[in-house]
Amino acid sequence: MDFSQAFAISAAGMSVQRMRVEVAALNLANAHSVQAPGAAAFQPLRVLVSPSVPFDALVSEGLQPGALPGATVQATEVSPRLVHDPGHPLADARGFVHQAAVDPATEMVTLMSAMRSYEANVAALNTARTLALKTLEIGRGT
What's 42's DSSP letter? Predict the structure, then answer.
């Protein structure tokens, strides 16, 4: 495997983790959004990564920089949370307000996990860069 493949793998990993951070932030931003009765509720999003070809084939062919094979963002189907607040202007006839079914604790764990994975990909990229530079130094004869 040459260094460009190592760089491409780390770059693809960083792109996926960046997408996970953005989606978790979007979910957190909509955690307390409310819907009028009968209106479509905000559905939490999840990042799904499933490559269309096997990973070893991607490595042997070399990943294209910036390419994210098979990474998609999908809404999860969950029913909204019902919060009893009869004084709210969007409460239904029984006094319940329909809030987005986003669990802030789950989203924070996802956010922290994605950040740690991003940092690991940066470390792998820096290691590959350092190895490439050392290889050039050895090749120069210094």
Answer: P
Q: How far is CA 34 from the centre of its chain?
A: 24
**What are 140's two structure tokens?**
């120069």
Is residue 42 a contact partner of residue 35, using CB atoms and an 8 Å limit? Answer: yes
Whole-prediction pTM: 0.76
Total domains, the chain: 1
Give pLDDT tens digits for 27-86: 999 988 888 877 777 888 888 887 666 666 666 655 554 455 566 777 777 778 888 999
- Residue 128 parent element (H or E): helix 104-140
User: What's the mean per-residue pLDDT of the chain?
Assistant: 83
Is the distance from CB of 122 to CB of 51 less than 8 angstroms?
Answer: no
Closest by CA position to 98, among listed 9, 8, 53, 38: 38
Q: How far apart are CA 80 and CA 43, in angstroms?
A: 8
- Alpha-carbon dihedral of residues 93, 99, 105, 107, nearest 10 degrees? 160
Q: Which domain holds residue 119?
A: 3-140
